[in-house]
Write a structure and sequence with these properties.
five-stranded antiparallel sheet, four-stranded antiparallel sheet, disordered N terminus, about 475 residues
Length: about 475
């Protein structure tokens, strides 16, 4: 999950993307030390109440944030072994929560250091009736490559990441008992679904080194994961059904074109790797410019990066890698709340914060040109203060369009539009924090048209005319 010995990279918060001024985001601290300690994973209630559960790695506490405040009493406390990448890690809620009030957690059990998934029933904010869903025994002394995240998929099955426990041969071993180096797919009670890619096996995908987190695109249902490489190749992967991610054959600083292995959508070649952790696909409305992008975070490099998905979700747009947000200390998880805001656990070392990123209302920082000429392309690319918005023509002349990628307004006035003379335009910019309009008038210069061809009426064609000179 987390490379503890990598140095932090301190970065600035002000970014300069295309066609906007300083990119602004409001950053709220929802909870911090000493009230919380090493938060890892967040799970939002699917009832859109804004309530979420989160795990604390080293002390084994599951906490609740509800109605805008951190509840003082833990939901449950479990006894964990927390050395290295072990501890209380993932959490998720039953898809029908709160009607089915079950909370699932992944943790490294004290004593035998087994990684286990346990389900609790939420009884008025207290976890009761523990039920063991999964046990993955530790078969060596390693404390890293632990995996540790759990999520329900759109098929209502429970998916679990398990690292290869620093033994690379585990990843390609498909014997039923070897769950290490895999992403697992289970029924809600821990049984193996009959339609899994490997019959009788809990595997969804194999060949993982240490996939800490994964996510499902809310639009397409496709799965993506982060993957930690060795001294190279931290990856962002599309994880198809039955996929073999290639470790240790592939991904050990080299890739081939062997179709048996899934190639990453993006990878960091090293030598300085970010230790990728949280990952999510953004489909909400609060940050319009993030829609259709994969967001992923790092622990050693405290950054949120983005990649733009193609329409089918199987690949990413070339050269779409971008930095979205940076901070002073590392991240473990990123989630999209029901409000469309971004929630990040900033856990390692002395940080111990849960952050919320929300948009700042846009305002125009540019003035539109107010003259145009018939038959000549008119363009205007507005710039903005605040969080980059979505932009559309609220009303304007026929034929006026906006390029959604660049905000460029384009219009070629016709002769009839030129004869009309003036045209009123209202551009509307909006994000999750509000909207604003830019209202202006364009004066169009008419170009004199050449005369149309004319026909000779009289005398008839080929008539000979005689004239008499006096």
């Amino acid at each position: 999950m987390i490379r503890l010995l990598r140095p932090f990279i301190v970065c600035v918060l002000i970014l300069q993307p295309l066609a906007t001024r300083a990119q602004q985001y409001a950053v709220d601290t929802l909870a911090a030390n000493p009230n919380i300690a090493f938060p890892v994973s967040i799970a939002f209630s699917p009832d859109n109440s804004g309530k979420f559960f989160f795990t604390e790695k080293n002390n084994g506490r599951v906490r609740i944030f509800a109605q805008g405040a951190l509840l003082p009493n833990p939901f449950v406390t479990v006894s964990v072994t927390s050395g290295g990448e072990q501890g209380l890690l993932g959490t998720t809620l039953h898809p029908d929560y709160p009607d089915s009030p079950f909370v699932y957690i992944f943790y490294t059990r004290a004593g035998d250091r087994a990684n286990i998934v346990v389900r609790y029933r939420d009884s008025s904010g207290v976890g009761v009736e523990p039920y063991t869903v999964l046990v993955v025994l530790r078969n060596n002394s390693a404390t890293n490559h632990n995996g540790g995240n759990i999520h329900f998929g759109p098929d209502r099955k429970l998916y679990v990441t398990v690292g290869e426990y620093a033994t690379s041969s585990n990843s390609q071993d498909t014997s039923a008992a070897n769950l290490r180096g895999k992403i697992l797919r289970l029924n809600v009670d821990g049984s193996v679904p009959a339609d899994n890619p490997w019959p009788g096996r809990a595997f969804w995908s194999i060949g993982h080194r240490n996939s800490f987190d994964f996510t499902f695109d809310p639009l397409t249902g496709k799965m993506y994961c982060s993957e930690n490489g060795p001294s190279c190749n931290d990856e962002v992967n599309r994880v198809p059904r039955g996929g073999n991610m290639g470790w240790p054959v592939e991904g050990n600083c080299t890739y081939t074109n062997n179709p048996a292995y899934v190639r990453p959508l993006y990878y960091f070649p090293g030598p300085s790797l970010p230790a990728l952790t949280g990952i999510v696909v953004y489909r909400a409305m609060a940050f319009p410019r993030l829609r259709g992008k994969i967001l992923f975070t790092g622990n050693s490099s405290p950054t949120v990066w983005t990649l733009t998905l193609t329409a089918d979700g199987d690949t990413v747009v070339p050269n779409s890698f971008s930095t979205f947000f940076t901070y002073s200390t590392g991240f473990a998880d990123i989630e999209v709340g029901p409000d469309g805001h971004l929630y990040i656990t900033n856990g390692p070392y002395s940080a111990n914060r849960i952050l919320r990123l929300r948009p700042v209302a846009p305002s125009y920082a540019s003035t539109a040109p107010t003259t145009a000429t018939q038959a000549i392309l008119y363009t205007y690319t507005p710039t903005f203060n605040g969080t980059p918005p979505g932009l559309h023509v609220a009303f304007g002349p026929q034929g006026m369009t906006i390029d959604s990628a660049t905000w460029t307004v384009r219009w070629t006035p016709t002769n009839q539009q030129a004869l009309q003379g003036t045209h009123t335009v209202r551009l509307r910019a909006e994000n999750g924090a509000g909207s604003t309009d830019q209202l202006y008038t364009i004066n169009v210069t008419n170009v004199n048209d050449p005369p149309d061809p004319f026909g000779l009426v009289s005398p008839p064609t080929d008539t000979t005319l005689n004239s008499r000179v006096q």
